[in-house]
Design goal:
The complex is a heterotrimer of chains A (343), B (274) and C (301).
Chain A lengths: L6 E10 L2 E11 L4 E5 L6 H9 L6 E6 L2 E2 L10 E4 L11 H12 L3 H14 L15 H13 L5 E5 L7 H18 L2 E6 L2 H7 L2 E6 L2 E6 L1 H6 L4 H6 L4 E3 L1 H8 L5 E3 L5 E4 L9 E12 L3 E8 L4 E7 L5 H5 L5 E6 L5 E2 L3
Parallel strand pairs in A: 3-8, 3-9, 6-7, 7-8
Antiparallel strand pairs in A: 1-2, 1-4, 4-5, 9-10, 11-12, 12-18, 13-17, 14-15, 14-17, 15-16
Helix pairs in contact in A: 2-3, 2-4, 3-4
Chain B lengths: L13 H24 L18 H7 L2 H34 L5 H13 L2 H14 L6 H26 L3 H8 L4 H29 L3 H6 L6 H10 L4 H36 L1
Chain C lengths: L1 H9 L2 H30 L3 E2 L6 E2 L5 H5 L3 H34 L3 H16 L2 H12 L4 H8 L3 H8 L13 H25 L3 H9 L4 H30 L2 H6 L6 H9 L5 H24 L7
Antiparallel strand pairs in C: 1-2
The chains are: A alpha+beta (343), B mainly alpha (274), C mainly alpha (301).
């Protein structure tokens, strides 16, 4: 239980006819958190966001904003603002008017709101852009205007619907850092929807992983990455090796399925004795992919399973690693680095 | 942002260019010829080359009260039919755009029917209906007839604009605190304004020079096209008819031209935003 | 206050939909479909041959009358004209549409499209009238024909009873020219739209695979543009079928469908027969639209 959560989902479902876009979701998002909703498209994360914003209403259950039931309020009566995936800037207005829109609707006098607009333009590092039109701005600049337009209303919660999706990689990484800084500066709860696991891990305080309308796991980025609770999370967030049955028993003494990240596995010679306390399996290298910074090995374990192993090329060259193909190897890892899966 | 890839286009062969130019001239030159004939001093025939040159027919036409009456009538009919089409067409476009309801496809079909079927069908159908109900043929029966085929013009223009407008813009406005009415005033209306203008101007032009349906729905009223039509079958005032035809071209040319310009520019800015 | 009204409607999207939809649908259903229905019904009435009064009793006599030899000939004449006009329009439209879609620069394209759409929306009546001037015996076309010493050829053409007449402005040839002229823009636009959708890479692929320009045209462009041609033909065919202005202005005593309808209801006062006759074009167009939909023409509209 989080004390005084900014957002609370109480058994929320959203069904479109037969399709269960969101099904019986319980969730609490803390005040001031940078919270990400991560999942593939159609997993229900965007529907959850739209229900918080008020564009959609739950078929069942309730949504609370600081203990106030907002499930049935229209969007214009919720102290929540959204940064849209396509930015949704008003093309017929200048940047200034776009940003001041919320204040204009509230009836704030022009002089006062223009002062606030200037502050916001500074915050998003676009001073002097007020008189331009959205069509004269680049994607990254439009993104910042959308952010300023939402933040100027001082919402209690800011919703971001895949806002970096349309940007190229370099700009995206830059904006990730900037967004995080702005969030620290304004101290507002950010709810960030994304399908990019790296982005979620980089930016968030906590992450909820969505699949097929349900939440698979909620936790800090390191929890999600290192202790995936389900097979889905293990597979969706990063690459993971799933080991089960007879082979699992050989390694851990139990047939229970566990997951292990490729970089946590140490690749040794077939005859090596693993260090004390390490779990180990024997196998044969079936495939080697040299990737510059690191090398990816596909190792076939006796008994059928294939494990992916990643080793950094600290001392090795491509010649060295490629010659490993076909060799017998011993795989070992620390038992703490595995995660037993619930389902 | 705006890629100018059109410069890599291949060059057309001279035969194709010539054929294209020929077709374009074929479309336009006949209309210029009417203007040429307004300047002929010859009253009874269409002799070419013109036996002389005069501008007196413009003065003669301007002093004809029957022409002024027809002109005023056509303006009034077109204005009211356009207003009705703007309301009905925008409503239909908004309904079709905002929701996916049963029978959505048939709406477009129903609206396009009056221009897809030959005008005579619409005309005689209205005549039998109005006559059958013993409603006298009047100014209003003309307007009702014109509105049926003007609606689709507005509808098409506005719907196309709605589809180009990002759907999230309305959500964004409400998200920023604007209720439905404020959203309409500050976001929807400014965005569809030029589409309304374009659709309205085309509807006006369409109504202003409509003759087929009007012949069936008018009583004793003589709209400008009806006046011209009477001159076509039984020419009495040839030079004046030339002047009237030129005036009709001029009156309809500007709205059509600007409507097309607006549509072309709208699709251009759409390209820039992407 | 407004907020509350707004919220009331916001929670009831179906009500809002109904509010938007009712006026246009009601108007079209009552005024337009109602009229079409009354047209259909009127065809089942008849006219008293002596008094000339409409007898409002169900009969198939009037519809049967539309199949008498004289009316059959009218239908045949009109449909043939519509077919020939459609084919010629397609041939004339293609080069310009092709040029606009594939060769014109962005700027030029805007202007060319305006150049095509202005005649499309311009006064149809005035455009017919223009040809009255051009085709007149003493008019501009005759003058040019005379200039090239072709008057003999023209007279020879006009001497054929099926297509000729006393002068170009009073002959089926003249009507044909005017029909082709009037409906041409309706053919250019759909073909241009269809061609616009043919990706340039397809043409490059064709020539890359060894096709000569003509072969590319024949095997790639033409089949892909065909739905556009069909879409355009809906207009050229339908509009020719129902027109009465052109036959009244330039035709002779040999009636076309629209002209027949016009005269039956007007001077003849025989509304039932006029109504029955219009069901002919309606029926033909319904069949035509069904075929066109099969051929994928609706996507090109």
């Amino acid at each position: 239980m989080i004390k005084n959560p900014a957002i609370r989902f109480d058994n929320v479902s959203r069904h479109f006819g037969e399709i269960k876009a969101v099904h019986q979701v319980d969730l609490e998002i803390g005040d001031g958190e940078f919270f990400s909703m991560l999942g593939p498209s159609g997993s229900g994360k965007t529907t959850c966001l739209r229900m918080i914003a008020g564009f959609d209403r739950p078929s069942e259950g309730k949504i609370f904003l600081y203990d106030r039931d907002v499930s049935n309020l229209p969007p214009y009566e919720r102290p929540v603002n959204t940064v849209f995936q396509d930015y949704a800037l008003f093309p017929h207005m200048t940047i200034e008017d776009n940003i001041a829109y919320g204040l204009m609707i509230k009836g704030m006098p022009k002089i006062k709101r223009m002062k606030r607009v200037d502050e916001m333009l500074n915050l998003v590092r676009l001073p002097g852009f007020g008189y331009r039109k959205p069509s004269q701005l680049s994607g990254g600049q439009r993104q910042r205007v959308a952010l300023a337009r939402a933040l100027i209303n001082q919402p209690k919660v800011l919703l971001l619907d895949e806002p970096l999706g349309a940007l190229d990689l370099k700009l995206r990484q830059q904006m990730q850092v900037e967004l995080k800084n702005i969030q620290r500066e304004v101290g507002i709860t950010f709810i960030f929807v994304t399908h990019d696991q790296e982005e979620a891990i980089t930016m968030s305080d906590r992450i909820a992983v969505f699949s097929e309308g349900k939440i698979e796991q909620v936790g800090s980025p390191s929890d999600i990455y290192e202790r995936p609770a389900t097979e889905f999370v293990a597979g969706f967030v990063g690459t993971s090796n799933l080991v089960s049955g007879e082979i699992a028993k050989r390694a851990t003494g139990s047939t229970k399925t566990f997951s292990i990240r490729p970089e946590k596995i140490h690749l040794g010679f077939a005859g090596d004795t693993p260090a004390a306390g390490m779990a180990a399996l024997d196998g044969t290298v079936r495939d080697v992919v040299y990737l510059g910074l690191y090398t990816r090995y596909l190792v076939e374990i006796e008994g059928g399973a294939d494990l992916v192993v990643i080793e950094q090329n600290l001392k090795t060259t491509s010649m060295d690693v490629l010659s490993a193909k076909g060799q017998k190897v011993k795989l070992s890892w620390h038992p703490d680095h595995i995660s037993h899966l619930g389902s | 942002m705006l890629s100018k890839s059109s410069d890599t286009r291949p060059k057309a062969s001279w035969a194709l260019t010539l054929a294209a130019l020929g077709t374009l001239l074929f479309l336009h030159v006949p209309m210029w010829i009417i203007f040429l004939y307004t300047l002929t001093p010859e009253e009874a025939t269409y002799t070419f080359p013109l036996p002389g040159f005069t501008t007196k027919w413009y003065g003669v036409a301007l002093q004809r009260p029957d022409l002024w009456r027809s002109l005023t009538l056509s303006f009034q009919v077109a204005a009211i039919a356009t207003a009705a089409a703007l309301i009905l067409g925008t409503f239909a476009a908004a309904a079709v755009y905002r929701s996916n309801f049963f029978g959505r496809e048939s709406i477009s079909f129903l609206l396009v029917l009056p221009i897809a079927l030959p005008g005579i069908v619409t005309g005689i159908a209205l005549r039998t209906a109005i006559g059958g109900l013993d409603i006298p043929f009047s100014f209003w029966t003309i307007v009702i007839g014109h509105a049926t085929f003007c609606v689709v013009v507005v509808y098409n223009n506005v719907l196309a604009r709605f589809r180009r407008t990002s759907a999230t813009m309305i959500e964004a406005s409400m998200d920023l605190g604007a209720n439905s009415f404020q959203t309409f005033r500050h976001v929807v209306l400014p965005n569809i304004a030029t589409a309304l203008l374009a659709g309205g101007m085309l509807a006006f032009a369409l109504s202003f020079d409509e003759v087929i349906v009007t012949t069936f729905t008018a009583g004793q009223q003589t709209t400008l096209p009806i006046w011209i039509f009477s001159q076509l079958s039984r020419p009495r005032d040839r030079p004046v008819t030339n002047v009237v035809a030129t005036i009709v071209i001029l009156i309809t040319f500007l709205p059509i031209f600007f409507a097309q310009k607006i549509s072309a520019e709208a699709s251009d800015t759409e390209g820039e935003m992407k | 206050m407004l907020n509350r009204v707004s919220t009331y409607f916001y929670r009831r999207p179906r009500l809002v939909l109904a509010i938007f939809l009712t006026p246009p649908i009601l108007y079209m259903l009552v005024v337009y479909l109602g009229s079409l229905f009354s047209l259909l019904i009127n065809g089942f009435y008849s006219i008293d041959d002596f008094t000339g009064i409409i007898v409002r009793e169900f009969t198939l006599r009037t519809y049967a009358q539309t199949f008498n030899p004289a009316n059959r000939e009218i239908f045949l004449r009109t449909a043939s004209m519509a077919a020939i006009v459609t084919v010629v329009d397609a041939m004339l439209a293609f080069p310009l549409a092709y040029y606009i879609a594939k060769f014109a620069s962005r700027r030029l394209k805007t202007w060319l499209l305006i150049g095509v759409t202005i005649p499309l929306w311009s006064s149809y009546l005035v455009r017919v009238y223009a040809w009255k001037l051009i085709l007149a015996k003493e008019g501009i076309l005759s003058w040019f024909i005379d200039l090239f010493h072709l008057t003999g050829v023209l007279d020879w053409l006009l001497s054929f009873p099926a297509i000729g007449g006393s002068s170009l402005s009073l002959s089926p040839i003249g009507m044909f020219i005017v029909f082709v002229y009037i409906w041409l823009p309706y053919m250019i636009i759909p073909i241009q739209t269809a061609l616009e959708r043919v990706p340039a890479s397809l043409l490059e692929a064709s020539s890359d695979l060894g096709a000569k320009p003509f072969q590319t045209f024949r095997n790639v462009i033409l089949p892909l543009a065909f739905p556009g041609v069909v879409a355009g033909s809906i207009f050229t065919f339908s509009l020719t079928l129902g027109d009465f202005i052109v036959p009244l202005t330039l035709g002779n005593s040999k009636f076309f469908v629209g002209q027949a309808v016009f005269s039956y209801q007007g001077t003849g006062g025989n509304i039932p027969l006029a109504a029955a006759m219009t069901m002919g074009p309606v029926l033909i167009m319904v069949v035509y639209l069904l075929i066109a939909r099969k051929l994928g023409a609706f996507d090109a509209l």
